[in-house]
Write a structure and sequence with these properties.
Aminopeptidase, 8-stranded mixed beta sheet, 4 helices, about 180 residues, single chain, alpha+beta
């Protein structure tokens, strides 16, 4: 299994690093995830739902680090985690060629390419590890994310109609996207 070495980025006067998560990150990840869930409705959860505490994140990081088809990346600014992404595969033979990608970044750090660079590093890792397909779900109103995913070779594979109800009381579709590695 190949971990991702730390990489430095400097965009619009912001210096940040992307690297594989370590168990020491668990205490920060719990709070970051909670904050992100409260900042946007692009995520699946409302703030506090499906809460993962420090020990839960430690276990996820440990499992992801030991698996050939899982990747947990963090983005760091001034030694503070401001976002993260995961690629999660499974052990089933028939679906072992694919992973599910998810990403989140604190709202104060949007516009610095953090989500894009987490995606690029995840794609690179997947290609190196013979992962053939990356799947993801995105809210239909998240045009910026949909454009980004298409830029990196993702295609719309389906729509889950009226899949989420947001704070305005309306139902929204979820767009299913996938990227298949061409040999």
């Amino acid at each position: 299994m190949i971990l991702v070495d730390q990489k430095e980025f400097y965009i619009r006067n912001l210096r940040y690093f992307i690297r594989s998560a370590k168990e020491d990150d668990a205490k920060y990840l719990s709070n970051v995830r909670l904050q992100i869930d409260g900042e946007t409705e692009n995520m699946d959860r409302d703030k506090g739902e499906a809460y993962i505490d420090e020990s839960g994140f430690k276990q996820i990081i440990k499992d992801d680090t030991e698996s050939v088809n899982k990747l947990f990346l963090v983005a760091e600014v001034n030694e503070r985690i401001v976002g993260f992404s995961r690629c999660e595969g499974n052990k089933l033979k028939r679906t072992s060629h694919k992973v599910e990608f998810g990403v989140c970044v604190l709202k104060g750090y949007w516009g610095y390419g953090i989500g894009q660079n987490l995606l690029k590093e995840s794609i690179h890792w997947a290609d190196l590890n013979e992962i053939k397909k990356i799947n993801l779900n995105v809210l239909e109103t998240n045009d910026k994310a949909i454009r980004l995913y298409k830029k990196y070779g993702f295609e719309v594979e389906g729509i889950l109609k009226k899949d989420k109800v947001l704070s305005d009381g309306n139902y929204y579709n979820t767009v299913l996207m996938g990227r298949f590695k061409k040999d």
